[in-house]
C-alpha cells in the first residue's frame, strides 16, 4: 500500500511494505492522536495486559527482507519469521545464537516480535540472551521519525544504546523495523538426560562442564524432575551424557520432551524469578498451593531461577485463583520471589495486582514520556503496564 500523507484517510488496519510507508503512517497517527498497535506473528498477543482497541493496527509481516548476511550476523526486516531466518542461516551451517521459545517459533514469531518481547528459550546457560546478541536496530518513533540511534528518538537519550531501549519494551517506545543479530555454528549433536527431582539442578550450574540447558518441570499434580540438554561435538556430548548417568542417581538418557522450548500455559500464567538456592522452597510452595486451592499448577523454567507458573483457574472465579497464587508467592518478599502476571483471561487483569513491586518504574515512565509523550504506542502493554 502506498498512501498519501495529506489526502488518504488513515485506515484502521495497514500493512506497510517499507520503512517510508510505516513512517508516513505513524506521522499521520501521531498528528491525529490515534493509538497504534503493531503485530508480526501474533504469538505474544495473549501476554501482558490486553490492549484496548487501537485506532491503527499495523501488520509488519510485509517488512521481511533479509538485507545482509555476514560471517556471524544476519540483518533482516522486523516482519521476517524466525523460522525463515533459521532456514536461511542453516544453509551455511549456522543458527541464531540466542535461544528462543520453540512454540513461538513454530507458530510464526517474527524477528521484531521476539526482540520487542525479549523472548528467551531454555538454552540460556551457555548462550547469551537475545538482548546481548542484537547488534543494531532501526526503529520508527511515535511521530514517524526513522531512528537508528537513541538520539533519533529523543535528544535527551543521546549516548544511550538504542537496542537496549527497545528490547523488551513491547512496542511502547518505538517500532522496530529492522535488526541485526548474531549467529553461531550449529551444534553437531544434541542429547537429553532426565533426572528425578530438582535436587541435582543446582550442582549442574557449577559443574566442570555446565550443560547447555537445565530445566525443571513440575507437571500438575506430579513431582518435579530435571531435564538436561548437552550439545556440541558428538564425542564430547556422548562422554558428558555418560558422566551424568554415572554420577547422578536415577539419571537416564531420554529423547527431547514434547514440551521442550514451550512456555507453561494453563488458563493463567505467572512469571516467577527466584535465586537458584530458593528453587526447592518455590517447588514446596507450589505443591502446598495446589493442594490448598484445588486447582492444577504447572511450573517450568531454568535452574537459573526464571520460571513460568501455569494456573488452571476455573471459569467461575479466575480472578480469585490468580490473586491467591500471586499473593502467596509475594508473601516471601521481593528479595526471595518476584512474581508478575504474564497471561490471563481479560477480566483478571483488572481484578489483581498484576505487576507487584516494580523497581525502576518511575524511570520507565520518564523514558516513555520522552519518546512517546502522547502515549499512542501500545498503551499499557509494557512492563509495569506502562
Q: How do the helices and strands line up, and which of them pair or pack?
A:
Blueprint: E1 13-14, H1 19-31, E2 36-39, E3 56-59, E4 66-69, E5 73-77, H2 82-90, E6 94-96, H3 102-106, H4 111-116, H5 130-133, E7 134-140, E8 146-147, H6 150-153, H7 162-166, E9 175-185, E10 189-196, H8 201-204, E11 213-218, E12 225-232, H9 234-247, E13 252-254, E14 268-274, H10 279-293, E15 297-302, E16 306-311, H11 318-330, E17 337-343, H12 361-371
Helix pairs in contact: 10-11
Keywords: FAD, Flavoprotein
Domain FAD-binding PCMH-type: 3-186
Organism: Brevibacterium permense
Describe this structure in words.
- The chain has helices spanning 19-31, 82-90, 102-106, 111-116, 130-133, 150-153, 162-166, 201-204, 234-247, 279-293, 318-330, 361-371, and strands at 13-14, 36-39, 56-59, 66-69, 73-77, 94-96, 134-140, 146-147, 175-185, 189-196, 213-218, 225-232, 252-254, 268-274, 297-302, 306-311, 337-343.
- The longest helix is centred in the last third of the chain and has 15 residues, at 279-293.
- It has three domains: 1-186, 2-Layer Sandwich (Uridine Diphospho-n-acetylenolpyruvylglucosamine Reductase, domain 3), CATH 3.30.465.10; 189-254, Alpha-Beta Plaits (2-Layer Sandwich), CATH 3.30.70; 268-361, 2-Layer Sandwich (Alpha-Beta Plaits).
- The two termini are 31 Å apart.
- The protein contains twelve helices and 17 strands.
- It is of the alpha+beta class and 386 residues long.
- Strand 7 (134-140) and strand 8 form a beta hairpin.
- An eight-stranded antiparallel beta sheet has the order 13-10-12-11-15-16-14-17. Strands 4, 5, 6, 7, 8 and 9 form a six-stranded antiparallel beta sheet that branches.
- Helix 10 runs antiparallel to helix 11.
- Helices cover 27% and strands 24% of the residues.
- Residues 1-6 have low confidence and may be disordered.
- Keywords: FAD, Flavoprotein.
- It comes from Brevibacterium permense.
- Residues 3-186 form the FAD-binding PCMH-type domain.
- Pfam families: FAD_binding_4.
- This is FAD-binding PCMH-type domain-containing protein.
Amino acid at each position: 500500500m502506498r498512501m498519501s500523507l495529506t489526502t488518504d484517510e488513515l485506515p484502521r488496519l495497514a500493512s506497510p511494505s517499507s520503512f517510508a510507508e510505516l513512517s508516513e503512517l505513524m506521522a499521520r497517527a501521531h498528528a491525529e492522536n490515534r493509538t497504534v498497535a503493531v503485530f508480526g506473528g501474533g504469538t505474544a498477543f495473549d501476554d501482558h495486559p490486553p490492549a484496548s482497541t487501537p485506532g491503527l493496527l499495523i501488520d509488519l509481516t510485509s517488512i521481511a527482507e533479509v538485507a545482509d548476511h555476514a560471517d556471524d550476523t544476519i540483518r533482516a526486516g522486523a516482519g521476517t519469521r524466525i523460522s525463515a531466518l533459521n532456514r536461511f542461516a542453516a544453509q551455511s551451517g549456522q543458527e541464531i545464537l540466542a535461544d528462543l521459545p520453540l512454540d513461538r517459533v513454530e507458530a510464526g514469531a517474527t524477528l521484531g516480535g521476539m526482540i520487542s518481547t525479549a523472548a528467551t528459550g531454555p538454552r540460556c546457560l551457555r548462550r547469551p540472551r537475545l538482548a546481548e546478541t542484537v547488534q543494531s536496530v532501526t526503529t520508527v518513533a511515535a511521530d514517524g521519525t526513522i531512528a537508528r540511534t537513541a538520539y533519533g528518538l529523543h535528544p535527551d537519550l543521546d549516548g544511550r544504546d538504542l537496542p537496549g531501549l527497545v528490547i523488551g519494551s513491547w512496542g511502547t517506545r518505538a517500532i522496530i523495523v529492522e535488526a541485526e543479530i548474531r549467529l553461531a555454528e550449529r551444534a553437531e549433536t544434541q542429547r537429553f538426560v532426565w533426572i528425578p527431582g530438582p535436587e541435582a539442578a543446582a550442582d549442574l550450574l557449577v559443574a566442570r562442564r555446565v550443560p547447555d540447558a537445565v530445566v525443571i518441570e513440575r507437571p500438575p499434580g506430579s513431582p518435579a524432575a530435571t531435564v538436561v540438554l548437552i550439545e556440541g561435538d558428538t564425542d564430547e556430548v556422548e562422554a558428558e551424557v555418560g558422566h551424568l548417568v554415572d554420577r547422578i542417581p536415577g539419571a537416564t538418557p531420554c529423547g527431547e520432551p514434547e514440551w521442550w522450548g514451550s512456555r507453561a500455559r494453563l488458563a493463567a500464567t505467572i512469571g516467577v524469578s527466584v535465586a537458584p538456592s530458593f528453587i526447592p522452597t518455590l517447588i514446596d510452595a507450589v505443591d502446598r498451593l495446589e493442594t490448598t486451592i484445588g486447582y492444577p499448577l504447572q511450573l517450568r523454567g531454568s535452574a537459573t531461577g526464571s520460571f513460568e507458573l501455569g494456573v488452571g483457574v476455573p471459569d467461575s472465579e479466575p480472578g480469585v485463583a490468580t490473586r491467591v497464587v500471586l499473593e502467596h508467592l509475594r508473601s516471601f518478599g521481593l528479595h526471595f520471589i518476584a512474581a508478575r502476571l504474564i497471561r490471563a483471561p481479560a477480566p483478571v487483569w483488572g481484578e489483581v495486582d498484576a505487576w507487584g513491586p516494580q523497581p525502576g518504574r518511575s524511570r520507565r515512565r520518564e523514558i516513555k514520556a520522552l519518546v512517546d509523550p502522547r502515549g499512542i504506542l501500545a498503551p499499557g502493554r509494557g512492563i509495569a503496564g506502562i
